[in-house]
Amino acid sequence: MADDTFDEFKKYSDKLASLSEDIIEKICLMHLCYRDGTISMVPIFKDYKTFVKACENKTFEGIEEGEELYLVDLESLNSDIVRIYILPKDIQTDLTGYYFDRQGKKIIEKKYVTEFDDRGGATGGKVYKYNPDGELIGQDGEEFGSKDLWSGPSEILNTIERSEKIYASYLRKTNKNQSYAKLMRLH
After folding, report:
1. Could you report the per-residue pLDDT of 123-138, keeping only the tens digit for each?
2. Is 107 among the domain residues?
3. Where in 36-185 does DSSP place strands (E)?
């Protein structure tokens, strides 16, 4: 039987809807992103080969098979800037994000650093943006919390709340009109 965990979110993303079942069943988590009025889906894969298939068989400078989790912003695949993220499987190291041009050449690197409270709970984070020469060119903040952080369409929040197949956590950028729902399978 096909995995239908993320089926109810396909209506928000033609790219997600176009993925084959063998790719969808290998999604371990999904970030649903709302950036300046645009919705995008960022699936997370445990294996490199599935990640490459989800990227329409494109490869990117410096992104190779290893011991990482692989993330791709599906809606960015046909844009001028493709967003790719790498997270070590031990999840003790912070996320690294990359922006690539259409030829797969890296143009920006981001380091996401999570901040924790005294009990070890994630409270927020910082995002450091670097150019290809490694020079710091910008910084953003992130806030973690409840569904109140979601700034996207309420219809999507309603879909998340109605789902019996996922658990969601939320974050938003402190300096931008961006919010995120991290969707985790319940089974």
Report:
1. 778 888 888 888 999 8
2. yes
3. 38-45, 68-72, 82-88, 96-100, 106-116, 122-130, 136-145, 166-173, 178-185
